[in-house]
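Weekly puzzle thread! Below is a chain. First person to post its structure in token form gets bragging rights.
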Amino acid sequence: MAGMILRWRESSSNFRSMDVLPHTLQRLRHRRLARALLATIITAMALLAGPDAQAEEVPILEARVSKVLDGDTFTLSGESRRIRVWGLDAPEWNHQGGSTATSTLHSLISGKQLRCAVLDVDRYGRLVAQCVLPSGRDIAAEMIRSGAATEYCRYSGGYYGNC
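Winning reply:
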């Protein structure tokens, strides 16, 4: 009988800890959403501010695209490091769908002047940036809308509404 009571207590404590799980997941989602919102606000302020009012935390690059490497990576004239589009996940050029993603990004930005807010540096040394065209259109949003790439939910926190 004592063994049965012990098992019941163990299982009931598991249920209590499982009740906490949805709250924990909800808190994580809220934190992720808060981080994405903060990144959005900082990026918007940096993109809207003129060159004299740039925030030190978010460097802004403005240059013409010199080369598109794949569906989410390109180079800018005068910048030695590659730019990785923030919040975008596209197949590599040598994987299924990669050539479509690469050609879509190429037709969208090739030779155009971009304004990019640098948000991070990835493990390969690429600058991770949210970039907009002169018209103000967000490159990642356009790539996602076209279907050539998807939102990189792990990093975007659902910024583009596709997570």
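Puzzle host: Confirmed. Bonus trivia for everyone else. The longest helix spans residues 2-48.
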